[in-house]
Amino acid sequence: MMQKIFKRLGNHQGAGRLGGLLIVGGIFTVVFVGLVITVIYLSKREKEKVQGEKKETKATILLTVAVDSQKVTDVLFDTALKKEFFSQESLQVKDVRKASSQEALDSLEKGEAQVALIDVAPLLDKGGGYRLVAPIGHLLLWGVTKNERVAEEAKDLASLSAYPLLSDAREGEENRILLDGLAHQAHATIRYDQVDHQEFFRLKQPPEILLTAEPGISQGLKYGGKVCFRITPAALGLPSSPPTRCLAAKLSYLQGKEGEEATLRLRAALKKASDLIYTNPMGILNDVLYNVYFGQYDLEVLAEVIQRLVQEKAIPREMEVSSPLFMQLARAQLKAQGKDGAQAEGLASQILWKG
């Protein structure tokens, strides 16, 4: 009798083990099948995504840019061109050099170019036929506080609604015209402070107009009691200041599908150039030095770049541009007639670190 009972118990235990194995096996089977289905689904989605990306490949837009080459302070545009950021945005940019902003605008009228890189000033006289596509350089107004007349002039700027604004600064339209845009900004501010230029660069949100005890970037620039204007590359300068160099196009072109797309791509490429300038300041400094020696940039651009790098603590404050350093750079520029890149870079390094 006892044997029958134990035999039955053994049978029940065996059945329990078998059932457990079946349950565990079933769970593993379900999990395995689920994983297989998931892998197949994800593979299919990835394949569809790749196919979709292939379908969405941008068609290349051919863009001719008429560049006013009178002033060569277009670091932002030149960087985007040199680093092929335009190509990365499927823009095939051909730059055609012109002798003036007016000639560049004439190229737009004749259909020789779609976009012009020019001063903003000529646009003020052209009515509503043109639009600013993207800023390349910004205008910054500097002044000194040596007499009350200058202070009154600065206060009057807030009430002006139309430009040009004329001052008794040095000759040259680029230094005498406060460009369109500032007067139409409701948030435009004017500060009247006794600060030097180093304190100015420490301001988190510098105003568009600031009268300072020091007249500019370089200690060697002295303007007496006059109001003066400074130009700085957009990516290296202060974003709050109004543009003085820009990419512009005819309104009719921008209203078309191609023009609208080209604008977005231009801005994306310039944004990459701006990011590069901030994240790789020494690389940009080398580029600017190289171009200074070959006569493509003027010394003021170099001053702006170095000052910005000092501010960002990318280079020592001892490298700040001074009047003697300007003289050395000018002499070095004359020496670099062989157009040897290595020679120019080495010469630049020597001058800067000894300046």
Observed structural traits:
alpha/beta; 355 residues; 8 strands; eight-stranded mixed sheet; 2 domains; 50% helix; disordered C terminus
3D architecture notes:
It is a single chain. 50% of the residues lie in helices and 15% in strands. By secondary structure, it is of the alpha/beta class. It has two domains: 61-261, no CATH class; 280-354, no CATH class. Strands 1, 2, 3, 4, 5, 6, 7 and 8 form an eight-stranded mixed sheet that branches. β5 (190-192), α7 (197-202) and β6 form a beta-alpha-beta unit. α12 (323-335) runs antiparallel to α13. It is elongated. The chain starts with a helix and ends with a helix. Residues 139-233, 235-242, 315-327 and 351-355 have low confidence and may be disordered.
Q: What portion of residues belong to β-strands?
A: 15-25%
- Distance from first to last alpha carbon: 111 Å
Percent in helix: 40-55%
Shape: elongated
Number of E-state strands: 8
**Main sheet?**
8 strands, mixed
Mean residue pLDDT: 59
- Oligomer state of the chains in this structure: single chain
Which consecutive residue ranges, at least 5 long each, have pLDDT under 50? 139-233, 235-242, 315-327, 351-355
Number of domains in the coordinates?
2
Structural class: alpha/beta
Pattern of helices and strands: HEHHEHEEHHEHEEEHHHHHH
Counted by DSSP, the helix tally is 13
Radius of gyration: 32 Å
How would you summarize what this structure contains?
The protein has helices at residues 2-55, 75-82, 85-88, 101-110, 148-157, 173-176, 197-202, 251-254, 257-279, 281-293, 299-311, 323-335, 341-354; strands at 61-68, 91-98, 115-119, 130-143, 190-192, 209-211, 228-233, 243-250. The protein is built from 13 helices and 8 strands.
